[in-house]
């Protein structure tokens, strides 16, 4: 396993742990989902950067779009938490 794959796995495990801890009630729903989606979105954007470095144009575009959508969902949960 190379360094890029290791980072992707670590970020995915952290995001999964945040989602699970949110579901079992360790975190408030909006805060847990905010951090989970932020971590997941950053993971997708990191993968887009790695794909760009490797010259995989189609994968870079799809990972960028998915990463931005996931970050937007995180922003939604953050805004709903701020709104009360």
From TrEMBL:
The UniProt keywords, alphabetically, are:
Membrane, Transmembrane, Transmembrane helix
Segments passing through the bilayer: 9-27, 33-51, 63-83
- The answer to whether UniProt assigns keyword Membrane to this entry is yes
Q: Does the keyword Membrane apply?
A: yes
Protein's name in the database: DUF3953 domain-containing protein
Q: What is the lineage of its organism?
A: Bacteria, Bacillati, Bacillota, Erysipelotrichia, Erysipelotrichales
